[in-house]
Amino acid sequence: MSIRHGLLALLERGPRYGSQLRTEFESRTGSTWPLNVGQVYTTLSRLERDGLIVQEGSDDAGHDLYAITDEGRTELRSWFETPVDRTSPPRDELAIKLAMAVGAPGVDIRDVIQSQRHHTLKAMQDYTRLKAQALADVPANRDEVAWLLVVEQLIFQAEAEARWLDHCESRLVRLATAAATEPSTEPGRAATRGPARALADRTRSQR
Q1: What is the pLDDT of residues 140-189, one digit of tens each?
Q2: Is this model's pTM higher than 0.90 or not?
């Protein structure tokens, strides 16, 4: 997540100090990705080092104010115009967990999927409730609109995850069924098919 560009976007609205930026960032995103003040000031220091912001006096309370520079505006425009790179996705713990669960001795992958599905659906219900609260009144300002967009992204993400889990379970059942109908003569392959056969046995026993 680009805290760097998020702070630049807030500073484009005018000079601000560190804790003010943290409050506005969390207001825009509904505290979905909370920041601490140290993280904000570390990022501000790097932005200042790179010539994207400058310190510009202080307010009546003595807070040091930061302002975006022309270079900072150019950087910000470039960020808005450049698509987020999806060709190098960050590590996804759930995908890694399922990949490791396939073939893991003593692990019933269907239980792993069921547990995750329950959690994902609960999260989706919570996000949907937050969306309903946000829509109880027409969003009155850009912060409320921004938060609504974030919570809707979380809902779509949870829906996609639930569909993917359904797909994983369906695929495993098909593979298990196919494995159960094919006699295995290769010891090595028999080992890799163990969990699939176990799933097939469990599926048959529940029919």
Answers
A1: 788 889 999 999 999 999 999 999 999 999 998 888 777 777 665 555 44
A2: no
Give the integer Cα–Cα distance in Å for 174 and 167: 11
Beta strand spans in 38-92 (E): 53-58, 64-68
Assess contact for 12 and 76: CB atoms under 8 A.
yes
Calculate the alpha carbon distances from 152 to 22, 84, 86, 147, 149 in Å: 22, 18, 20, 9, 5
Residue 58 DSSP symbol: E
Q: Which residue has the tokens 């027409």?
A: 138
Copy the structure tokens of residue 201.
């046995």
8 A C-beta contact, residue 109 and residue 94: no
Give dist(CA 168, CA 99) in Å, integer. 11
Q: Do 42 and 53 meet the contact criterion of CB atoms below 8 Å apart?
A: no
Give phi and psi for 14, each to the nearest 5. Answer: 140, 165
Residues 9, 14, 16, 22, CA torsion sign: negative
Task: Report which DSSP code applies to 141.
Answer: S
Report whether 25 contacts 6 (CB < 8 A).
Answer: yes
Provide the 3-class DSSP secondary structure of residue 54.
strand
